[in-house]
What does this fold into?
Amino acid sequence: MCVADIMISNPITVSPADSIGTAVRRMRGSGYRCLPVVQGTRLVGVVTDYELNRAANSPLVAREPWHDHFLLDLIEVRSCMKRDPLTVAPEAHIREAARVVCEGDVSGVPVVSGHILVGLVTTSDLLRHLIRLLGE
It folds into this structure.
């Protein structure tokens, strides 16, 4: 079975110029713990809940709630995204995606064809597949 069989097609994304506040809202709304960062359709990075939490709790961010929200909407995703993220191809075996997730210690891996984002495979997708296999 290949990654394309279990991946999330057309995942929620952000652009490098989006605010980290936008990324936080999209991440919360989608239930993902990572978001692909795209320029058009080209994958340029990944932003995770860890990086967003670090940016939101930076000592450079004031502690007044209204000021925090104001700054979170000014700081761009490009300031905290991981460039050149680990990826897998849609035709890769699911075992390869699981290996990348485990060895990279990441919660999700963008699925790319060339440099074009075509999906996202998460630890939840891999676990759902494992449950199906164990049930058979």
Q: What stands out?
A: Residues 123-135 form the longest helix (13 residues). The chain is about 40% helix and 20% strand. The two ends are 15 Å apart (CA to CA). Residues 3-135 form a domain with the CBS-domain fold (CATH 3.10.580.10).
